[in-house]
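Archive maintenance. Older records in this collection stored only the sequence; we are now back-filling the structure field for every entry so that each record is complete. The fields below show one back-filled record exactly as it appears after the update. Entries are processed alphabetically, and DUF1249 domain-containing protein is next in the queue.

ARCHIVE ENTRY
Title: DUF1249 domain-containing protein
Organism field: Pseudoxanthomonas taiwanensis J19
Length field: 169
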Amino acid sequence: MQQALPIVARIPRIGRFGWLMGLYAENHARLTRLFAPAGLACGSYVSSLGDGLDVRLDVLERHRYTVELRLTYDLCDPVTGEPDPSAYLRLYNDARQVETTHCYVGRRWQDVIGMYPPPAEVVGHRLRMNTFLGKWLQYLAEQGHGVATLRPAPPLAAPRAPLAAVARD
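Back-filled structure field:
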């Protein structure tokens, strides 16, 4: 005689790592639909809607299977002189995934969670960064940014010295 299994046992469960890989694939679809970065040459591009919040996409490096990108608003942080918010992305052409490597200049995962974090903390940190990217890409699409609004732009000027350093000099 067969026994009925509880519903929980019949529904497959996705782990945090599987969820993260799903986010990478979802972000690839969103970014590709939005800006088609795999076809862009190295350089800077700006998407402008006339609302004063231009979006900058910098194609930093191109490799055979990956493209290194920075997505930011065309604004600079008054303290650091760097674009903020920024998301540094790695687009994997062959795997059709986009990974957010870090979200702020000089703040790589080692700066945020330490040199030897437990694996669960690394996955949690990556989940947060890539969830942020997915929401940001969705927002940009809803605002009307896309391939049609993307234009080549001059690179950002060299970062200025922080205001605190200027005040000391």
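Update note: The chain has a mean pLDDT of 82. The chain has one domain: 16-154.
Entry marked complete.
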